[in-house]
Amino acid sequence: MNIDLNAAARFMATQARLLDRRRFDVLFRDGDPAAALAALEAYRNPDGGYGHGLEPDCRSVTSQPAGALHAFEVFADVGKSTSPRAAELCDWLASISLPDGGIPFALPLPDPEGSAPFWASADPAVSSLQITAIVAVTAQRVAAHDPAVAAHPWLAKATSYCLDEIEKLDEAPHALVLAFAMKLVDALGDTRLVEKLGRFVPDDGVVAVGGGIEGEAMRPLDFAPEPGGPARKLFRPEVVEADLRRVTGGQHDDGGWRVDYTSYSPAAALEWNGMFTVNTVSLLRKNAPRGACAGIAAGRRR
């Protein structure tokens, strides 16, 4: 794991928004979880949802499913420092869920300036496997330490919706749908559905993102981020090792990582890279060989 955590910390200090700096501190610098939760509070609306650009390419002040995803990321980061806001977010998600248990890709945007067109044009009357799966799997991470989230009926209904939709798939879905659905069934340990979805993933694990920029793709670690999960068995060890080398080698001289997809505003471009850097270092630490984790924790280049 040839990364420089000190350089990453400098990148976060100079180019990331406060929320992601707090997340980085919690995960890698013994930071105060309360500070991360306080930073998240600025994005919360009175209805219990999250907006105000918490999803960088959705600048709307309104509460949105994508905002819920990123709020759950923070609740997962703080671990055992649970917050009642997580269960309140489940309440909000229950309030916008459709009869089948899914949530729409996005709700109407009265203020679409700076938001990606796919958020602004989403149909709020149709459930989206893509957004429901990634929100649900991130909520499952929170549920591992937050009993209120684990017991919330919204999570059970959303998960059930996703599993039903995955059962119906008889051809390869969009790469993002495939990756997010795979993450969910991997987290649930559903080997049968992992194998079902695995039929749509080539041996090299590279699935082009339709409509994305040139070279944009989902890759092995997007499908199987957990070292011990059943999805990891879809890939030969050398395929996973090559993808880890690719991710590790993506650290720039300024210490950060860059997303490989389009940002829809100048603010989003900066915010995505800070968020992506936190998530990438977390992924690498999770997958570090025994003996390498200390190097990541200490910020040494190994």
Give a verbal description of the structure.
This protein is an all-alpha fold. 53% of the residues lie in helices and 1% in strands. It has 15 helices and two strands. The chain has a two-stranded antiparallel sheet with strand order 1-2. β1 (207-208) and β2 (217-218) form a beta hairpin. α1 (5-15) packs antiparallel against α2 (18-28), α2 runs antiparallel to α3 (33-41) and α10 (175-188) packs antiparallel against α11. The N and C termini lie close together (7 Å). The model is unreliable at 297-302 (pLDDT under 50).
**What is the distance, rounded to the nearest whole angstrom, between the alpha carbons of the first and last residues?**
7 Å
Helix count from the secondary structure assignment: 15
Strands, total number: 2
User: What do the pLDDT scores average to?
Assistant: 95
Structural class: mainly alpha
Quaternary state reads single chain
Based on CA atoms alone, the radius of gyration comes out at 18 Å
Strand content range: under 5%
- Any low-confidence stretches, pLDDT <50, length ≥5? 297-302
Please give the order of strands in the largest beta sheet. Answer: 1-2
Helix content: 40-55%
Q: Outline, from the CA principal axes?
A: globular
Largest sheet: 2 strands, antiparallel
